[in-house]
Inverse folding.
């Protein structure tokens, strides 16, 4: 399908979808610049925090909305859409549509899960930035931003009590999802729900849209299900190939 005359929106995960295992992006960066020059919207939808995603948006001068913490919230720069839409709250720069629960509640409920199951659960809230950097491979300045959580907690279960822990998380009314390196506890939301809401806002504004999704993990599947053209990065389909294909789709406009 040729998306002629349509607004193209790329909903992309970051880790292992755009960034490689070492958080590098060299081969993708020129493609991103090209897509932006073609007026393609680049919407990051990541398990990362607002601060981490802002780091990448600022680096590439991306001004499109973004989805934080696995679909916990959509941050829409003010005046981005000319149409009316509902949002949960405003900050100086953004209208924010929230789907998850505040971080303090997620953290408290994970404590309850830990006590109930006796499992050895370690979340980002229990770790220093230095420990997160060592465990995840993130540089320290990004590990510090990864700790600034608003809605969700990445965690690991160190003693194999996965079933007990995940059952207890559900009993506490929370959801969980699996990213590339960590499990994530969050409220009742996922990347798909947030993508769907944002897709509708684009539709309201541009009338004709073509949505593309890029993901690599289970937490990306709800997002990939609702886009027009999903790409799943894995051992046989690498990031560069995917982004080159997106570039050629955008050039057919
Ligand atoms: Mg990923």
């Amino acid at each position: 399908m040729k998306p002629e005359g349509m607004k193209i929106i790329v909903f992309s995960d970051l880790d292992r979808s755009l960034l490689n295992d070492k958080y590098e992006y060299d081969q993708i960066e020129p493609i991103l610049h090209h897509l932006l020059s073609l007026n393609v919207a680049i919407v990051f939808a990541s398990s990362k925090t607002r601060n981490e995603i802002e780091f990448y948006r600022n680096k590439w001068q991306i001004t499109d909305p973004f989805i934080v913490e696995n679909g916990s919230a959509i941050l829409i720069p003010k005046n981005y859409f000319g149409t009316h839409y509902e949002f949960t709250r405003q900050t100086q720069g953004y209208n924010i549509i929230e789907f998850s629960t505040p971080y303090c509640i997620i953290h408290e409920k994970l404590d309850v899960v830990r006590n109930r199951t006796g499992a050895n659960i370690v979340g980002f809230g229990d770790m220093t930035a230095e420990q997160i950097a060592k465990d995840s491979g993130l540089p320290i300045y990004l590990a510090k931003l990864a700790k600034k959580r608003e809605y969700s907690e990445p965690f690991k279960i160190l003693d194999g009590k996965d079933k007990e822990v995940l059952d207890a998380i559900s009993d506490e009314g929370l959801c969980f999802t699996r990213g590339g390196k960590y499990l994530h506890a969050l409220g009742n939301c996922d990347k798909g729900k947030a993508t769907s809401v944002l897709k509708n806002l684009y539709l309201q504004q541009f009338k004709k849209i073509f949505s593309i999704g890029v993901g690599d993990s289970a937490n990306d599947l709800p997002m990939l299900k609702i886009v027009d053209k999903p790409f799943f990065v894995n051992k046989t389909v690498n990031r560069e190939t995917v982004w080159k294909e997106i570039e050629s789709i955008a050039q057919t406009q």
User: Anything to note?
Assistant: The chain has a mean pLDDT of 95. Residues 13, 15-17, 179-180, 216-217 surround magnesium ion (CB under 6 Å). The CA atoms of residues 180 and 242 lie 18 Å apart. The chain is about 35% helix and 20% strand.
